Batch of 2 targets.
Target 1
Amino acid sequence: MHGKAAIAGIGETTYYKHGESPHTEFQLACIAIRRAVEDAGLALTDVDGLVSFMDQRNVPVRLARALGLTELRFAATTWAAGGNSMASAIQLADAAVSSGHARHVVVFRALAQGQFGRFGQAGGSGGYAGLSGSLAWNGTYGMLTAAHQCALHTARFLHDHGISQEALCEIALACYANAQRNPRALRRGKPLTREAYHASRWIVKPFHLYDCCPENDGAAAAVVTTLERARDLPQRPATIVAAATGIGPQYGAFDMQHLGSAFYRQVGKHLWEQAGCGPADVDVAQFYENFTGPVLIALCEMGFCAPEGVEEFVSDGRLVGPDAAFPFNTSGGNLGEAYIHGFELVNESVRQIRGTSTCQVKKVERALVVAGPGYAPGSAALFGAPS
Amino acid sequence: MTRADDRAAGVPRVLGDAWSLPRLDAHNRAFFTAGVLTLQQCTACEHVQHPPDDVCEACGGFDLGWLASAGDGRIESVAVVTQAIHPALAERVPYAIVLVSVADAPGVLVTGNVVGAEPDAIRIGDRVRVVFADARDPQSSAELRIPQWEIVAA
């Protein structure tokens, strides 16, 4: 921690629309891992650690066999959660490498929703044979997806702070605009206008279609090692300056204290304490957009602006392009590039540190990645240029 | 009709009789069957928490009982679902999901639906009271009384 570890290699598959991957999820995972290890200038036999999140399928023993990882000695996954623990996975790898439990840890996420079904259609067409657990409390009333849950937080946040629909629109517009520069982006060639945003159908108010990220197939991976070792490898290292998780109240529950929250106050507090710097020191930021609304909340909770100022903060093109006032989701993010559970945002942060983004910000010293908002625990990581 | 009579009469279920029912367990049985808004309360410190759990979040106590709430609440957030994500809800959209704070259980939010209101007309701040939809689970034969909400003052 505190800058001892770094990302030395990144890799990803081609990104596909949901259901269009020619490969199985496990094959996608193998492709991304191979590419990340190759990018790092390492051999697969150098990999001695594996970390993922929300992944009960592509298990380490199976990957070790398929990839020839003969010296695997560390494997872990974050406590069950979704894209909110994307940066917690970086934190786990950082901890393993910094403490010497492993030398080269690959962090990855693979998704093939054509093979395994979509998050947004839980239950399928067969119906719910009785709603148990948190579904009993929420599903009984038709609250069934992350969109519904995040819409309730967003509606309250907009109401309390006098924020208009345009603020949500601005997040979508920025992601789509930045995606137009990125050959990997699934939304490249499909620019979004303000008119098209407002004309799009509602999914759950206050979310239009374009407020909701698509579901995609693909995989992304990154190799974490010590900064010391990374300096001897071909790529410019992206130092893990800080990585933080904020454990909040239970999944699926609402309470007055956290209504209108994205569960990022704790994450911000821990991240900036660990990093020894603050929001003003960030040169470029990637925010996981499951939905646009929680991004606005996370921007505030991470300390970039006050809720009363967030609409101005995101408006008038302030998030668009490499010269933006606040360079944001420069690859297009979940909305514009692909939804690989946010791991594509980690790789984009590394590109910004290397200077190889298709929407490259000048003089990047600090690149922030914020994982999925609206669910606890949230997580975030701050990457730095090596000194 | 007195308020108690009104409640006893029951109201239609906003999502319809065909929509799935909660599977009853030790934590949710009282909430979905009592016919009174029933929330978990710590016997030792009287803290009310929702959803119920095995341990009191305020004092750590294990001795947990139930509060029969008067059932008066306030809409704290509302989201109008316009795209059905399940075929059984296709005829029910648009419907509103609301979060309701309960007057005699500070801090608690209960998820619900509002009876007899246009989804788009429901506002944060609306005063509501609990009403119940009767349902029978064909699989378990359990008789349910599902809490819903009715606007009493905008």
Note: The longest helix of chain B spans residues 3-9.
Target 2
Amino acid sequence: MAENAIHVGHLEYAYGRKNVIKDLNLKVKKGNIYSFLGPNGAGKSTTIKLLLGLLIPNKGNIHILGFDANDRMSINRRIGVLVESPGLYEHLSGYQNMEIQAQLRGVQKQRVDEVIEQVGMKDAANAKVKTYSTGMKQRIGLGIAMLQKPELLILDEPTNGLDPQGIREIRNLLIDLNKELGITIFLSTHLLSEAEKVSHQIGIIQRGNLVFEGSRSELQKVRFSAAKAKVNTNDNQKAREILENNNYIPEEHPEGFLLVECEDQKQLSGISRLLLDNDLDVYHSSLYEADLEEMFLNLIKE
Amino acid sequence: MRQNMISIEVKKIRRSPVIWISILMPLILAAIIFLIFMLQGDRLIKPDMNPYERFISMGVNSTVIVLFPLFVVILNSLIISIEHDSGGWKSLLTAPVPRLKIYLSKWSIVNIVNFLTLVLFLIFLILFTGLLAIIKPDLGFAGHKLDLGYYAWWFLKIFIATLALSTLQYQFSLWMKNTFYSIGIGLLAVIAGLILMNLDFIDYYPYAYPVLSYKMFLENALNSNSIDQALFLHEYLSLAYTAVILSAGWFFWRKKQFK
């Protein structure tokens, strides 16, 4: 039995002359939730389409649940998929769409009712899809992905178009599916906060390159390496001198407070203590976390 | 896992414009012919004529030249656009169904609807002759026999004649997301067929086949007073083209990438 649900080695893909995926390696462990993180246009959807056989790689190999990517039937029998838009027939109802997908996958009709309930679409199931909001379509799409009780879910931006409440519900649903049924989940997202909330593993893609792959705590370390301490005291001029004398690199923010290079919470409290010991009043000290863009820049620098 | 792909395809087109066009078009056309015969039937049917022959020929004549080939063109584009518009290819291709099965089932549903529309048209025409026989007995329907086998064979030949152009349009529809292009090509090709009709090589031009089947069948029936059991050359060619285009199309489509 393969230990990895997805194993991608040296994957390359070009749209015409433009290389969009460059020597990509991925390992998604069975039983994990893996967030595939990256800004728009980084190559997330292309990678997913390569995994699903919708695109054919120029180089590299893909194994899904131990099967070679060319063995589509063995793979498709075991996976649930949501790619970009959920691919629904707008002139039919959500229920009819699900019925069609169930029949395509050889799934009993009874399962359609179960899944519709699970994704919270029972009340709107008989309305035509063209009347649905993006979030409702996304739910039906997720339901379709779950129809055949897959071993692996591959989801492209599953919370796209959902309101905060919807995002929370889908997040909880995914966590439940993973915990209770042991389904491995590979999902792409451009939201760092989402990735951190649900994942065991996180991979970060930037311009077709995987710039980070590791656990959530490993990502935290990288994040803090890009973080700074935000400090405000009764005398920022004096605070700056003290910090410089102690090998910190402070800089003044236009709004008046100081930003200091800082790796983690421990170092942050060290900074506070140093200033207090020097008879300064510390009004504010917090970790000024890097946003996704800054973190990407940081990762690329490494 | 054995999915009944045809039943899945039927579920997709129900409640779509395809169904309405396929039912309403033959109904409206047959109704128009009916109205013409209601108003001017006595002028159209000469005393020595079989009124059924006159009525049904007029129905076929008025549709087979442009309307019916164009219907086949539009049918292909509409049915395939259901997948293009919804992004449905991605969910089809990630289901445990072999690509060949998808390719053949789509082609099949287009041509099943095509066939059923022809059958419906014949049924509507016959029903309207029944109505005429009751409302306008002086047109003489009661005195003649309706030779159903004769008309069924005629319509079947027309169907066979549409297969080549239908299979060609199927390929255009698969590759062109914008139905404007696939329908545009089909429309031009049908009109070109009418312009080229009297040239020697017309037997090799699929978009002219339905008209050829109509004309040759009628001429044959008039000259020999019997039904020709064999297919005409262009009908055999239509079947051969269908097999070749369908196979060649599969060769390319099986490797199509979905961006």
Note: The radius of gyration of chain B is 20 Å.
